[in-house]
Amino acid sequence: MSQNFVNPDQIRAWFSRAMSDMYKSEVPLYDTLLDLVAQVNAKTLAGQPELAAQLARTGEIERLDIERHGAIRVGTAEELANMRRVFAVMGMQPVGYYDLSPAGVPVHSTAFRATHEAALQASPFRVFTSLLRLELIDDVALREKAARILAARQIFTDRALELAARFETQGGLNDADAREFVAEALHTFRWHSEATVSLDDYRELHGQHRLIADVVAFKGPHINHLTPRTLDIDEAQAEMPRRGVSAKAVIEGPPPRKCPILLRQTSFKALEEPVWFAGTDGNAAVGSHTARFGEIEQRGVALTRKGRALYDQLLDLARSRISGAPNEGNAAAYMQNLQECFATFPDDYAQLHDQGLAYFRYFLTGKQGAESDSDLRALIEQGYIRFEPLVYEDFLPVSAAGIFQSNLGDKAQAEYAQNASQAAFEQALGAPVQDELALYQDTQDRSLAACLQALGVQAGTPVAA
Ligand code: OOG
Ligand code: NI
User: Is the CB of 109 under 6 A from ligand 1?
Assistant: First the structure.
């Protein structure tokens, strides 16, 4: 029986492709963005043979063209829990907890993604998934109204949930079921130009926070962007206006570096789209909504807890030097600050490795004859083992807030009491989120164990570099 099941990595790859095709037809500017990124990547690879060789050695070159992340926002615990079941069919698990409330966005989030390096290699598709926190809204009547509207909708087709249940009981789906599942699941992420509420209700929700209207007023959690991966985000950012695409003022994340760390992101602004609102007299009222945008990202090496602490500290420093969040007015000063503040962050893979600031994967060089009691440092120095940066697969809360804000308008910033609540999030999700650092550590450890075994070096040998 089980040999007839389709590998969840395959289902995820199909789904990622279907989602990209759907978004291309729904948001033509996304197609423009894909073209732009493909051209920038080709040029970067041609101009930097060392980078091309590194991406070939790690296998990343093969996933580069298909790599995407998307984002959705759901309204209730039940929606989030079912989302977890649906993504599980595609081999995607909730990883990480992100609290966006300090940045004035009333949501908390996780990323659904593959967790093993082999699965990430097959399809790195991930979805940043936010849950609206109605409890942060102080207007009780509005909060209750929003909860009532959300309780009345079903964002999944019956068939999608049936197939998810079948996956759970059987432990997999056969080919026909898997293909049908992809088509059914896709419906959840479509754009609906008819709102489920009246124009008056929409305005009321919008008045409280634009994001609340976006989540509550529609039939489902439309995918709000899809993000290809670029190898040179500064070049891509410069190219956007040349192609008539209006780019976000600053690139979120670390400054440009020789050895990229974590994640840098930028986006084009959300489009204003016509929406038909339910009319009390049976006639629809026409209005509009801005929700869907395009984003690009450049991924670098994943940082250890120590590296991440340094990143957070330097980012805080750069942001404390400008008043408030970066915007059109202070973009140049902010980027300058960022460069200056990050000057103390080592920009060399050997240093990042030796100081325990980043995660790496170890590879054999082909050289034979290592002493069986060698430690890692010796194996590297003597040329038996080399290391390559392990790419960051997750998101950054400050950057995510910047992406949200650029599409909500700078005026939309609200103040919430800072209360991250991972426990409440996990309760809504129906499962704990995985710790991303543990996943990077596992991948690093597995690669080292494989090297040591192949070299016949005792696995128990201390391996501190
Ligand atoms: C999600 C924004 C965050 C990212 O890449 O950090 C995000 C949203 O707007 O729903 O996508
Ligand atoms: Ni994004």
Answer: no
**Is the Cβ atom of 132 under 6 angstroms away from ligand 1?**
no
SS3 456: coil
User: Which residues of the chain carry a pLDDT beneath 50?
Assistant: 412
Which of 107, 132, 403, when mutated, tests ligand 1's pocket best, judged by the most ligand atoms within 8 Å of its CB? 403
Determine how many CB atoms are found less than 10 A away from the CB of residue 253. 25
pLDDT digits (tens, 9 = 90+) for 92-120: 999 999 999 888 889 999 999 999 999 99
CA–centroid distance, 201 to ligand 2, in Å, is 28
Which residues sit opposite 288 in a β-bridge? 274
pLDDT at 78: 98
pTM: 0.95
Query: Strands, DSSP E only, in 146-284?
Result: 225-228, 263-268, 272-277
Task: Render pLDDT for 198-229 as a digit per residue (tens, 0 to 9).
Answer: 999 999 999 998 899 999 999 999 999 999 99
d(CA 128, CA 126): 7
Domain parsing of the chain, residue ranges: 8-300+393-433, 303-348, 359-390+435-465
CATH topology of domain 8-300+393-433: 2,3-Dihydroxybiphenyl 1,2-Dioxygenase; domain 1 (3.10.180)
Distance 129 CA to ligand 2 centre (A): 10
